């Protein structure tokens, strides 16, 4: 049983081996056949590729030969063209060389001409120098001869050269003074006749030349004390109180031997007024110490600012001016505490406003605009103690800031001649300003200044030859000059009035205008007995 199984297994194994060998042989022959066919195909492809490569090589050789021939032809053309260009450039260079040679010849010729002219000039200079020397010698001889002649003339005339000049000038001056006076009189008459044709413009311009500076200006205020003991309390221990006051107020406090009086000195009138009010309140309250001083000053400053605004409102209401900016009202109020030559600036501005309005109405202009310009023409004086610049510049800046009309701004800028007048109202404001300032009594001055001004006027009048006496009347605004009729003719009197006027204008400063009257009269006096 076991043997038959083993034999069966062996026979199975043999069958398997034989089948495997048979399958392997079959596969081998199939693969060999495929290999042979693949070799044959690859040989065919290689042969085809060789044929194509040979054909491409032949065609490439043919094309390269054609390109080579084309490149050679192009290169020959380029070479020929470059040769032509080279020849052309050589010809141009030859032409330039010939032109340079010609220029060089011309330059050489010019140098020769210049050398010749230089030699000629040098010879002329030598000749001129010789002539100058000769002329100098002749001039010396002439000067010596002239000096000898002058000495001879001085000996014969018994006058020196300066004396002769002075005598001749004096004769000419006397001779021509009459003609000048007559000519001026004729010109003035002609101007007066032309004024009739230009009445409106000349009426305002005729009042232009007035205002001049006078000397005094208030810069201090006095505060009355109940007793001299209050001075010690104001000074305080080691000067503590007065130092605090000067620092807070911004003024100088002067305590001297004047009984029951203390002085506040400051150029700013607003600071001075605030300091005065604070001092009066402290004296009334009796409690004087640094803390109390500062608190009271702040309260009074606030109340004072409200007061300034009320003053501005009252002024505008009084003048009947509409639509003035509220920002300008405090500045108008500040003018009440500002003085110019002793004249209150607010009162002066109100007067100028009224005068400008009246003149504008007479000339057919806008009286309200003229009144507005007159009120604000000196508005810059409200801040000229605090800021740099003239009151004209500061006033113009304020008016522009608060959008005032152009006629008002121009009146502010031109009322002292700092800018041209572009509106007739500006002429009216300047004339009204002069009239208000020159009104008798409008501006105050010291007695010493007043007497000195009158003496100076009379001295100028008496310095002219032929003047018998002179009188300054109406505070120096009317001057009467009495002349000797035998020495001064009528024409001489006219010339003398003009000369006195010119000297007063050039040598003096005075408010308003001065009328000069030269009086020449002959009196025949007899006494009947």
The best one-word shape is flat
Uncertain residue ranges: 202-217
Distinct helical segment count: 15
Secondary structure category:
mainly alpha
**Mean pLDDT score, rounded?**
79
**Strand-residue fraction?**
5-15%
Major sheet: size, sense and barrel closure?
Answer: 3 strands, antiparallel
Radius of gyration (CA) equals 59 Å
Strand order of the largest sheet: 1-3-2
Distance between the termini: 224 Å
As a percent range, the share of helical residues equals 55-70%
Secondary-structure element pattern, one letter each? HHHEHHEEHHHEEHHHHHHEEHE
Q: What is the strand tally?
A: 8
Task: Summarize the SSE layout with pairings.
Elements: H1 2-157, H2 161-195, H3 199-205, E1 220-224, H4 229-235, H5 240-249, E2 252-254, E3 261-265, H6 269-285, H7 290-319, H8 329-334, E4 339-340, E5 343-344, H9 345-362, H10 367-376, H11 391-401, H12 406-414, H13 424-438, H14 447-462, E6 467-473, E7 478-483, H15 490-507, E8 515-519
Parallel strand pairs: 7-8
Antiparallel strand pairs: 1-3, 2-3, 4-5, 6-7
Helix pairs in contact: 2-15, 5-7, 6-7, 9-10, 9-13, 10-12, 10-13, 11-12, 12-13
């Amino acid at each position: 049983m076991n043997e038959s199984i083993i034999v069966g297994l062996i026979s199975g194994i043999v069958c398997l081996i034989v089948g495997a060998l048979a399958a392997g042989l079959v596969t081998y022959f199939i693969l060999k056949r495929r290999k042979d066919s693949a070799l044959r195909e690859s040989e065919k492809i290689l042969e085809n590729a060789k044929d194509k490569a040979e054909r491409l090589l032949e065609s490439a050789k043919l094309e390269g030969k054609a390109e080579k021939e084309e490149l050679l032809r192009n290169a020959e053309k380029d070479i020929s063209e470059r040769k032509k260009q080279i020849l052309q450039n050589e010809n141009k260079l030859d032409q330039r060389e010939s032109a340079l040679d010609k220029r060089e010849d011309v330059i050489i010729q010019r140098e020769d001409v210049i050398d010749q002219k230089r030699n000629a000039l040098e010879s002329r200079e030598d000749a001129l120098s010789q002539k100058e020397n000769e002329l100098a010698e002749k001039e010396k001889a002439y000067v010596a001869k002239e000096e000898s002649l002058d000495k001879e003339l001085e000996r014969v005339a018994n006058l020196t050269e300066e004396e002769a000049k002075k005598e001749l000038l004096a004769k000419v001056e006397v001779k021509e003074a009459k003609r000048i006076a007559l000519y001026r009189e004729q010109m003035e008459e002609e101007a007066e006749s032309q004024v009739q044709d230009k009445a409106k413009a000349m009426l305002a311009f005729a009042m232009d030349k007035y205002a001049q500076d006078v000397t005094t200006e208030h810069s201090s205020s006095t505060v009355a004390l109940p007793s001299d003991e209050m001075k010690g309390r104001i000074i305080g221990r080691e000067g503590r109180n007065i130092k605090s006051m000067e620092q807070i107020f911004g003024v100088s406090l002067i305590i001297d031997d004047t009984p029951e009086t203390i002085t506040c000195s400051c150029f700013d009138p607003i600071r001075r007024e605030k300091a005065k009010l604070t001092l009066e309140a402290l004296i009334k309250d009796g409690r004087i110490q640094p803390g109390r001083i500062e608190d009271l000053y702040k309260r009074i400053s606030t109340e004072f600012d409200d007061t300034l605004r009320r003053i501005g409102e009252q002024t505008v209401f009084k003048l009947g001016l509409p639509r003035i900016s509220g920002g300008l009202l405090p500045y108008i109020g500040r003018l009440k505490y500002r003085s110019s030559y002793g004249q209150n600036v607010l009162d002066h501005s109100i007067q100028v406003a009224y005068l400008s309005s009246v003149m504008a109405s007479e000339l057919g202009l806008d009286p309200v605009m003229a009144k507005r310009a007159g009120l604000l023409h000196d508005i810059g004086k409200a801040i000229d103690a605090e800021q740099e610049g003239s009151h004209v510049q500061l006033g113009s800046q304020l008016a522009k800031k608060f959008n005032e009309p152009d006629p008002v701004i121009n009146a502010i800028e031109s009322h002292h001649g700092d800018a041209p007048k572009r509106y007739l109202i500006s002429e009216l404001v300047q004339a009204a300003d002069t009239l208000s300032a020159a009104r008798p009594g409008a501006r105050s001055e010291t007695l010493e200044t007043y007497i000195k001004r009158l003496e100076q006027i009379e001295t100028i009048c008496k310095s002219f030859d032929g003047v018998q006496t002179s009188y300054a009347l109406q505070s120096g605004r009317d001057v009467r000059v009495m002349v000797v009729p035998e020495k001064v003719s009528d024409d001489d009197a006219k010339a003398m009035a003009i000369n006195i006027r010119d000297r007063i204008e050039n040598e003096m400063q005075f408010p308003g205008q001065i009328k000069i009257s030269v009086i020449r009269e002959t009196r025949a006096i007899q006494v009947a007995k």
